[in-house]
Amino acid sequence: MKKKIIVTTAVTSVIAISTAFGAYAATKFTIMVNGKAANTDAKVINGLTYLPLRDIGTLLGANIQYDASTKTVKVDNNASQSPSTGTGNSTTPPVGSIGLSRSNPAPLGTTVTYSVKDYSDSYTGQLTLEEVIRGDRAWQMIHEENQFNDPAPDGYEYVLAKINVKVVKNNEKDAQVRFNSYSFTLVSSQGKDYEKASVVTPDELEASLYEGASDSGYAAFLVKKADANPLIAFGRDYDGKGGVWLKP
Asked: CB atoms < 10 A from the CB of 178, how many?
């Protein structure tokens, strides 16, 4: 049976494989792209099997962008682009690029340069982990900031991470980039995201920056006392890839 590949720029932004009379509607099959299986859900509608364009684009190494103002889906080759934080349009960072992958996080005091290009932002930025305070001292600072802050649950303790953020170049003229402590997530050494710490944070990171501007502030996290090597993630892709990774 012949199969036809259809790329559509409808709001759903999918790739459709046409099959006569919906022959595959009740049949499991595998989509291979450059020798890799597409780990994605398929839907059969009116005899057509639909696959998310972004999932196929990721396997092809393509940059998928959606312009809401013109309702246009753009598909570009990523080969010539700089490393990205993720955000749905990440490229694969060069081997050895410190801070641009979970397997190679940036240690304290190391500046990581990254690029973002998505539906809302298009800029090059830098992140630097400047200070890490953990345990009793972190709780003391949090309690002094607001006496109604709750102590850490049993088996957990607070971590305060002071992070410097900078916008090196903004491709959107006269636009600001917004950062806050909730832009960052603590990931356990076992690979599980910790829940956000809901506390009033001393000197909390909160900044809207034009090109060339920078700022520093704290982000507060809860971590298991036995977890000696958690990581801080920023700007990951929807599937957890990419982003900037810092080692507190």
From this structure: 12
Lowest model confidence (mean pLDDT) among 59-68, 158-167, 212-221, 226-235: 59-68
Q: Domains plus CATH for the chain? A: 4-60 (no CATH), 82-246 (2.60.40.1240)
- pLDDT band at residue 119 under the 50/70/90 scheme: confident
Q: Name the more confident of 60 and 99.
A: 99
| Burial (CB count within 10 angstroms: exposed 0-12, middle 13-18, buried 19+), residue 58 | buried
Q: Comparing 67 with 200, which gets the higher pLDDT?
A: 200
pLDDT (tens digit per residue) in 136-164: 999 999 999 999 999 999 999 999 999 99
How many whole angstroms separate alpha carbon 133 and alpha carbon 29? 51
Return d(Cα 139, Cα 216) in angstroms, integer: 20
